[in-house]
Protein backbone atom coordinates (compact mmCIF):
# COMPACT_ATOMS: atom_id res chain seq x y z
CA UNK A 1 0.00 0.00 0.00
CA UNK A 2 1.32 3.46 -0.96
CA UNK A 3 0.96 5.99 1.87
CA UNK A 4 -0.33 9.43 1.01
CA UNK A 5 2.21 10.93 3.39
CA UNK A 6 5.10 9.38 1.46
CA UNK A 7 3.73 10.78 -1.82
CA UNK A 8 3.58 14.25 -0.28
CA UNK A 9 7.08 13.97 1.19
CA UNK A 10 8.52 12.97 -2.18
CA UNK A 11 6.78 15.58 -4.32
CA UNK A 12 6.12 18.45 -1.89
CA UNK A 13 8.94 20.69 -3.13
CA UNK A 14 7.84 20.49 -6.76
CA UNK A 15 4.23 20.98 -5.78
CA UNK A 16 4.88 24.11 -3.70
CA UNK A 17 7.05 25.58 -6.45
CA UNK A 18 4.05 25.45 -8.80
CA UNK A 19 1.00 25.86 -6.55
CA UNK A 20 2.09 27.82 -3.45
CA UNK A 21 0.49 31.05 -4.70
CA UNK A 22 -2.87 29.25 -4.98
CA UNK A 23 -2.84 27.60 -1.54
CA UNK A 24 -4.68 28.92 1.49
CA UNK A 25 -3.40 28.65 5.05
CA UNK A 26 -5.73 25.70 5.68
CA UNK A 27 -4.38 23.87 2.62
CA UNK A 28 -0.76 24.41 3.68
CA UNK A 29 -1.61 23.16 7.15
CA UNK A 30 -3.33 20.09 5.69
CA UNK A 31 -0.29 19.36 3.50
CA UNK A 32 1.99 19.45 6.54
CA UNK A 33 -0.35 17.33 8.68
CA UNK A 34 -0.82 14.61 6.06
CA UNK A 35 2.93 14.48 5.38
CA UNK A 36 3.93 14.07 9.04
CA UNK A 37 1.06 11.81 10.19
CA UNK A 38 2.48 8.89 12.21
CA UNK A 39 6.02 9.69 11.10
CA UNK A 40 9.23 10.62 12.91
CA UNK A 41 8.40 14.30 12.31
CA UNK A 42 5.10 14.17 14.22
CA UNK A 43 4.76 14.64 18.01
CA UNK A 44 5.45 11.51 20.02
CA UNK A 45 3.77 9.69 22.86
CA UNK A 46 5.51 7.42 25.34
CA UNK A 47 4.03 3.99 25.96
CA UNK A 48 4.93 1.36 28.56
CA UNK A 49 4.43 -2.39 28.31
CA UNK A 50 2.19 -3.91 30.98
CA UNK A 51 4.38 -7.03 31.26
CA UNK A 52 8.04 -6.28 30.54
CA UNK A 53 7.88 -2.55 31.43
CA UNK A 54 9.54 -1.69 28.11
CA UNK A 55 9.29 2.00 27.17
CA UNK A 56 9.13 3.29 23.62
CA UNK A 57 8.05 6.31 21.64
CA UNK A 58 5.18 6.16 19.15
CA UNK A 59 4.24 8.92 16.69
CA UNK A 60 0.85 10.58 17.02
CA UNK A 61 -1.75 10.60 14.27
CA UNK A 62 -2.41 13.99 12.69
CA UNK A 63 -6.17 13.85 13.27
CA UNK A 64 -6.85 15.96 10.17
CA UNK A 65 -10.25 15.30 8.61
CA UNK A 66 -8.66 14.97 5.16
CA UNK A 67 -6.33 12.19 6.35
CA UNK A 68 -7.34 8.78 4.94
CA UNK A 69 -6.45 6.82 8.07
CA UNK A 70 -7.45 9.14 10.94
CA UNK A 71 -10.70 9.79 12.80
CA UNK A 72 -12.33 6.43 12.18
CA UNK A 73 -13.52 6.53 15.78
CA UNK A 74 -15.12 9.96 15.27
CA UNK A 75 -16.94 8.60 12.22
CA UNK A 76 -18.30 5.75 14.34
CA UNK A 77 -19.46 8.13 17.05
CA UNK A 78 -21.23 10.38 14.53
CA UNK A 79 -23.02 7.41 12.98
CA UNK A 80 -24.19 6.17 16.38
CA UNK A 81 -25.61 9.59 17.25
CA UNK A 82 -27.55 9.76 13.99
CA UNK A 83 -28.93 6.25 14.46
CA UNK A 84 -30.32 7.25 17.85
CA UNK A 85 -32.26 10.07 16.18
CA UNK A 86 -34.08 7.88 13.65
CA UNK A 87 -37.88 7.84 13.84
CA UNK A 88 -40.47 5.36 12.49
CA UNK A 89 -40.89 6.81 9.00
CA UNK A 90 -39.72 6.35 5.45
CA UNK A 91 -36.55 8.21 4.56
CA UNK A 92 -35.31 9.76 1.33
CA UNK A 93 -31.84 10.74 0.15
CA UNK A 94 -32.02 14.16 -1.51
CA UNK A 95 -29.05 15.54 -3.45
CA UNK A 96 -28.59 19.15 -4.54
CA UNK A 97 -25.71 19.86 -6.94
CA UNK A 98 -24.06 23.08 -8.05
CA UNK A 99 -23.77 23.39 -11.85
CA UNK A 100 -20.30 23.15 -13.40
CA UNK A 101 -20.35 26.89 -14.20
CA UNK A 102 -20.46 27.65 -10.45
CA UNK A 103 -17.43 25.57 -9.44
CA UNK A 104 -14.98 28.41 -9.98
CA UNK A 105 -17.18 30.67 -7.83
CA UNK A 106 -17.35 27.99 -5.14
CA UNK A 107 -13.57 27.54 -5.12
CA UNK A 108 -13.01 31.30 -4.78
CA UNK A 109 -15.61 31.78 -1.99
CA UNK A 110 -15.61 28.41 -0.27
CA UNK A 111 -17.09 29.37 3.08
CA UNK A 112 -19.96 31.45 1.66
CA UNK A 113 -20.93 29.15 -1.21
CA UNK A 114 -20.71 25.92 0.77
CA UNK A 115 -22.69 27.35 3.68
CA UNK A 116 -25.33 28.63 1.26
CA UNK A 117 -25.42 25.25 -0.48
CA UNK A 118 -26.26 23.42 2.74
CA UNK A 119 -28.64 26.08 4.05
CA UNK A 120 -30.53 26.50 0.75
CA UNK A 121 -30.84 22.74 0.38
CA UNK A 122 -32.52 22.54 3.77
CA UNK A 123 -34.72 25.59 3.15
CA UNK A 124 -35.93 23.99 -0.08
CA UNK A 125 -36.89 20.80 1.76
CA UNK A 126 -38.57 22.80 4.53
CA UNK A 127 -40.66 24.81 2.06
CA UNK A 128 -41.87 21.72 0.22
CA UNK A 129 -42.69 19.96 3.49
CA UNK A 130 -44.71 22.87 4.84
CA UNK A 131 -46.65 23.16 1.56
CA UNK A 132 -47.27 19.42 1.26
CA UNK A 133 -50.88 18.46 2.05
CA UNK A 134 -49.88 15.32 3.92
CA UNK A 135 -47.03 16.80 5.95
CA UNK A 136 -47.76 20.50 6.65
CA UNK A 137 -44.89 20.76 9.10
CA UNK A 138 -41.15 20.62 9.74
CA UNK A 139 -39.34 17.42 8.76
CA UNK A 140 -36.01 16.17 10.06
CA UNK A 141 -32.90 16.13 7.91
CA UNK A 142 -29.26 15.11 8.21
CA UNK A 143 -27.09 16.98 5.70
CA UNK A 144 -23.54 16.11 4.61
CA UNK A 145 -21.48 18.19 2.18
CA UNK A 146 -19.40 16.46 -0.48
CA UNK A 147 -16.90 18.39 -2.59
CA UNK A 148 -15.67 15.72 -5.00
CA UNK A 149 -16.81 13.23 -7.58
CA UNK A 150 -15.61 9.62 -7.72
CA UNK A 151 -12.76 10.82 -9.96
CA UNK A 152 -11.89 13.34 -7.18
CA UNK A 153 -12.74 16.32 -9.38
CA UNK A 154 -14.12 19.42 -7.65
CA UNK A 155 -17.86 18.73 -7.65
CA UNK A 156 -19.71 20.41 -4.73
CA UNK A 157 -23.04 18.85 -3.75
CA UNK A 158 -24.97 18.20 -0.56
CA UNK A 159 -26.79 15.04 0.52
CA UNK A 160 -29.78 15.26 2.86
CA UNK A 161 -31.31 12.22 4.52
CA UNK A 162 -34.88 13.47 4.99
CA UNK A 163 -37.77 11.87 6.86
CA UNK A 164 -41.10 11.51 5.05
CA UNK A 165 -42.69 12.76 8.26
CA UNK A 166 -43.03 16.15 9.89
CA UNK A 167 -43.92 17.86 13.14
CA UNK A 168 -46.50 20.66 13.16
CA UNK A 169 -45.45 22.80 16.12
CA UNK A 170 -48.62 24.94 16.04
CA UNK A 171 -51.05 22.01 16.39
CA UNK A 172 -48.57 19.56 17.99
CA UNK A 173 -49.26 16.96 15.33
CA UNK A 174 -47.06 14.26 13.83
CA UNK A 175 -47.80 13.51 10.18
CA UNK A 176 -46.33 10.93 7.79
CA UNK A 177 -46.57 10.53 4.04
CA UNK A 178 -48.97 7.79 3.01
CA UNK A 179 -47.63 4.86 1.04
CA UNK A 180 -49.11 4.30 -2.40
CA UNK A 181 -49.01 1.31 -4.73
CA UNK A 182 -45.48 2.23 -5.83
CA UNK A 183 -44.25 3.08 -2.35
CA UNK A 184 -43.89 6.48 -0.72
CA UNK A 185 -43.54 9.58 -2.88
CA UNK A 186 -41.88 12.64 -1.39
CA UNK A 187 -41.31 15.69 -3.65
CA UNK A 188 -40.95 16.46 -7.35
CA UNK A 189 -37.29 16.67 -8.36
CA UNK A 190 -37.65 19.32 -11.06
CA UNK A 191 -39.71 21.57 -8.82
CA UNK A 192 -37.15 21.24 -6.01
CA UNK A 193 -34.33 22.10 -8.42
CA UNK A 194 -36.11 25.33 -9.45
CA UNK A 195 -36.65 26.44 -5.87
CA UNK A 196 -33.11 25.51 -4.87
CA UNK A 197 -31.72 27.50 -7.80
CA UNK A 198 -33.72 30.59 -6.84
CA UNK A 199 -32.58 30.37 -3.22
CA UNK A 200 -28.93 29.97 -4.18
CA UNK A 201 -29.08 32.98 -6.51
CA UNK A 202 -30.62 35.09 -3.76
CA UNK A 203 -28.07 33.92 -1.19
CA UNK A 204 -25.06 34.69 -3.40
CA UNK A 205 -26.42 38.11 -4.36
CA UNK A 206 -27.10 38.90 -0.69
CA UNK A 207 -23.48 38.02 0.12
CA UNK A 208 -22.31 40.60 -2.42
CA UNK A 209 -20.58 38.08 -4.66
CA UNK A 210 -20.75 38.50 -8.41
CA UNK A 211 -22.56 35.72 -10.25
CA UNK A 212 -20.95 33.82 -13.14
CA UNK A 213 -21.44 35.34 -16.59
CA UNK A 214 -23.53 32.38 -17.70
CA UNK A 215 -25.08 29.37 -16.00
CA UNK A 216 -27.86 26.91 -16.88
CA UNK A 217 -31.48 27.71 -16.15
CA UNK A 218 -32.16 24.11 -15.17
CA UNK A 219 -30.29 22.75 -12.13
CA UNK A 220 -30.18 19.20 -10.81
CA UNK A 221 -31.84 17.71 -7.73
CA UNK A 222 -32.35 14.02 -6.96
CA UNK A 223 -34.77 12.32 -4.59
CA UNK A 224 -34.29 8.63 -3.83
CA UNK A 225 -36.13 6.42 -1.34
CA UNK A 226 -33.77 4.81 1.21
CA UNK A 227 -36.22 2.93 3.43
CA UNK A 228 -35.52 3.32 7.14
CA UNK A 229 -32.53 5.57 6.44
CA UNK A 230 -30.00 3.25 8.09
CA UNK A 231 -28.03 2.34 4.95
CA UNK A 232 -27.95 5.95 3.73
CA UNK A 233 -26.44 7.08 7.04
CA UNK A 234 -23.83 4.32 6.90
CA UNK A 235 -22.88 5.48 3.41
CA UNK A 236 -22.55 9.12 4.48
CA UNK A 237 -20.70 8.21 7.68
CA UNK A 238 -18.20 6.15 5.74
CA UNK A 239 -17.19 9.20 3.68
CA UNK A 240 -17.43 11.81 6.41
CA UNK A 241 -14.09 11.54 8.25
CA UNK A 242 -11.87 9.54 5.90
CA UNK A 243 -10.62 12.14 3.47
CA UNK A 244 -11.28 11.98 -0.24
CA UNK A 245 -9.18 8.94 -1.16
CA UNK A 246 -8.33 5.64 0.46
CA UNK A 247 -4.66 4.74 0.51
CA UNK A 248 -5.61 1.30 -0.80
CA UNK A 249 -6.77 3.01 -4.00
CA UNK A 250 -3.37 4.60 -4.71
CA UNK A 251 -2.07 1.86 -6.98
CA UNK A 252 1.12 3.34 -8.47
CA UNK A 253 3.62 6.15 -7.90
CA UNK A 254 6.42 6.10 -10.44
CA UNK A 255 8.04 8.18 -13.20
CA UNK A 256 6.68 11.37 -11.67
CA UNK A 257 3.07 10.18 -11.95
CA UNK A 258 0.48 8.88 -9.49
CA UNK A 259 -2.31 6.46 -10.40
CA UNK A 260 -5.41 5.72 -8.35
CA UNK A 261 -8.51 3.67 -8.94
CA UNK A 262 -12.14 4.66 -8.58
CA UNK A 263 -15.52 3.17 -9.40
CA UNK A 264 -17.31 4.56 -12.43
CA UNK A 265 -20.81 5.60 -11.32
CA UNK A 266 -22.27 4.90 -14.77
CA UNK A 267 -20.82 1.43 -15.43
CA UNK A 268 -20.13 0.31 -11.87
CA UNK A 269 -16.67 -0.86 -12.96
CA UNK A 270 -13.35 0.03 -11.41
CA UNK A 271 -11.23 2.41 -13.50
CA UNK A 272 -7.80 3.98 -13.15
CA UNK A 273 -6.81 7.63 -13.37
CA UNK A 274 -3.21 8.80 -13.77
CA UNK A 275 -2.00 12.32 -13.07
CA UNK A 276 1.31 14.09 -12.71
CA UNK A 277 2.62 14.24 -9.16
CA UNK A 278 1.82 17.91 -8.60
CA UNK A 279 -1.65 17.68 -10.16
CA UNK A 280 -2.46 14.70 -7.94
CA UNK A 281 -1.59 16.65 -4.79
CA UNK A 282 -3.62 19.63 -6.02
CA UNK A 283 -6.54 17.29 -6.70
CA UNK A 284 -6.42 16.25 -3.03
CA UNK A 285 -5.84 19.66 -1.46
CA UNK A 286 -8.60 21.47 -3.35
CA UNK A 287 -11.06 19.61 -1.10
CA UNK A 288 -9.70 21.13 2.14
CA UNK A 289 -12.52 22.93 3.96
CA UNK A 290 -12.17 26.22 5.88
CA UNK A 291 -11.27 25.88 9.53
CA UNK A 292 -14.36 25.37 11.68
CA UNK A 293 -16.66 24.62 8.75
CA UNK A 294 -19.20 21.92 9.69
CA UNK A 295 -19.80 19.64 6.72
CA UNK A 296 -22.37 17.54 8.64
CA UNK A 297 -25.43 19.31 10.04
CA UNK A 298 -28.81 18.36 11.48
CA UNK A 299 -31.98 20.27 10.69
CA UNK A 300 -35.61 20.28 11.78
CA UNK A 301 -36.65 17.91 14.55
CA UNK A 302 -33.36 15.98 14.08
CA UNK A 303 -31.35 18.99 15.31
CA UNK A 304 -29.16 18.41 18.36
CA UNK A 305 -31.34 20.86 20.36
CA UNK A 306 -34.40 18.64 19.84
CA UNK A 307 -33.31 15.67 21.97
CA UNK A 308 -36.37 15.94 24.23
CA UNK A 309 -38.69 16.07 21.22
CA UNK A 310 -37.04 13.01 19.66
CA UNK A 311 -37.29 11.17 22.98
CA UNK A 312 -40.99 12.07 23.19
CA UNK A 313 -41.59 10.82 19.64
CA UNK A 314 -39.87 7.54 20.44
CA UNK A 315 -42.09 7.15 23.51
CA UNK A 316 -45.39 8.07 21.87
CA UNK A 317 -44.69 6.06 18.72
CA UNK A 318 -43.32 3.12 20.72
CA UNK A 319 -40.14 3.11 18.70
CA UNK A 320 -36.80 1.80 19.95
CA UNK A 321 -33.89 3.24 17.93
CA UNK A 322 -31.42 0.86 19.58
CA UNK A 323 -32.39 -1.78 17.02
CA UNK A 324 -30.35 0.20 14.51
CA UNK A 325 -26.83 -0.79 15.45
CA UNK A 326 -24.15 0.44 13.04
CA UNK A 327 -21.23 -1.90 12.37
CA UNK A 328 -18.74 -1.18 15.13
CA UNK A 329 -14.98 -1.47 14.98
CA UNK A 330 -13.38 -1.26 18.40
CA UNK A 331 -10.02 0.39 18.67
CA UNK A 332 -7.50 -2.45 18.78
CA UNK A 333 -5.01 -2.29 21.61
CA UNK A 334 -1.41 -1.28 20.91
CA UNK A 335 1.05 -4.11 21.48
CA UNK A 336 4.60 -4.15 22.76
CA UNK A 337 7.26 -4.68 20.12
CA UNK A 338 9.25 -6.89 22.52
CA UNK A 339 6.78 -9.31 24.07
CA UNK A 340 3.47 -8.57 22.32
CA UNK A 341 1.62 -7.54 25.49
CA UNK A 342 -0.72 -4.55 25.66
CA UNK A 343 0.97 -1.19 26.23
CA UNK A 344 -0.37 1.83 28.09
CA UNK A 345 0.16 5.49 27.23
CA UNK A 346 2.10 7.29 29.97
CA UNK A 347 2.96 10.59 28.25
CA UNK A 348 1.76 12.41 25.15
CA UNK A 349 2.76 15.24 22.79
CA UNK A 350 6.52 14.90 23.15
CA UNK A 351 8.39 17.10 20.68
CA UNK A 352 10.41 15.04 18.20
CA UNK A 353 14.17 15.50 18.07
CA UNK A 354 16.81 14.18 15.73
CA UNK A 355 18.05 11.76 18.41
CA UNK A 356 14.64 10.19 19.04
CA UNK A 357 14.27 6.56 18.06
CA UNK A 358 10.73 5.93 16.87
CA UNK A 359 9.15 2.53 17.41
CA UNK A 360 6.29 1.31 15.27
CA UNK A 361 3.77 -0.28 17.59
CA UNK A 362 1.51 -2.91 16.00
CA UNK A 363 -1.98 -1.48 15.63
CA UNK A 364 -4.68 -1.39 12.99
CA UNK A 365 -6.40 1.86 12.05
CA UNK A 366 -5.87 3.52 15.41
CA UNK A 367 -6.05 7.31 15.54
CA UNK A 368 -4.59 8.85 18.68
What is the secondary structure topology, with strand pairs?
Layout: H1 4-19, H2 25-36, E1 44-49, E2 55-59, H3 72-83, E3 91-97, H4 103-108, H5 110-131, E4 138-148, E5 154-168, E6 173-176, E7 179-180, E8 183-184, H6 189-206, E9 220-225, H7 230-240, E10 250-254, E11 257-263, E12 270-276, H8 277-285, E13 296-300, H9 307-316, E14 343-350
Antiparallel strand pairs: 1-2, 1-14, 3-5, 3-9, 4-5, 4-13, 5-6, 7-8, 10-11, 11-12
How many separate helices?
Answer: 9
Choose one word for the global shape: globular
The oligomeric status of these chains comes to single chain
Architecture per CATH nomenclature, i.e. the level-2 architecture of the domain at 87-242 and 291-323: 3-Layer(aba) Sandwich
Strand content: 15-25%
Protein name: Putative transposase
Domain Transposase zinc-binding: 8-98
InterPro entries: Transposase_32, Zn_Tnp
GO biological process, one term: DNA transposition
Question: How would you characterize this protein structure?
Answer:
The structure is a single chain. With 368 residues, this protein is an alpha+beta fold. It has a domain at 87-242 and 291-323: 3-Layer(aba) Sandwich (Replication Protein E1, Chain: A). Helices cover 32% and strands 24% of the residues. It has helices at residues 4-19, 25-36, 72-83, 103-108, 110-131, 189-206, 230-240, 277-285, 307-316, and strands at 44-49, 55-59, 91-97, 138-148, 154-168, 173-176, 179-180, 183-184, 220-225, 250-254, 257-263, 270-276, 296-300, 343-350. The strands form four sheets. Strands 3, 4, 5, 6, 9 and 13 form a six-stranded antiparallel sheet that branches. Strands 2-1-14 form a three-stranded antiparallel sheet, with no helix packed on it. The chain is globular, with a radius of gyration of 23 Å. GO terms for molecular function: DNA binding; transposase activity. Residues 8-98 form the Transposase zinc-binding domain. InterPro entries: Transposase_32, Zn_Tnp. Pfam families: Y2_Tnp (PF04986), Zn_Tnp_IS91 (PF14319).
Amino acid sequence: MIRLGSVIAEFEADFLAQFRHRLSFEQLRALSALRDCRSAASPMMQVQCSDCAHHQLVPHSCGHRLCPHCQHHESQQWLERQMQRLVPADYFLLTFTLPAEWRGLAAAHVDVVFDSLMRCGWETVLRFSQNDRQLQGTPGAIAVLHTHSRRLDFHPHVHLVVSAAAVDAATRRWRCKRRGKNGTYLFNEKAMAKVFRAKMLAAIEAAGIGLPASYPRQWVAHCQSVGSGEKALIYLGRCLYRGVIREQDIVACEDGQVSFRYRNAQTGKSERRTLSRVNFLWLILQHVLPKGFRRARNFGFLHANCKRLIGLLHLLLRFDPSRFKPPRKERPAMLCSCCGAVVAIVRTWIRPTSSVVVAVVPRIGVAI
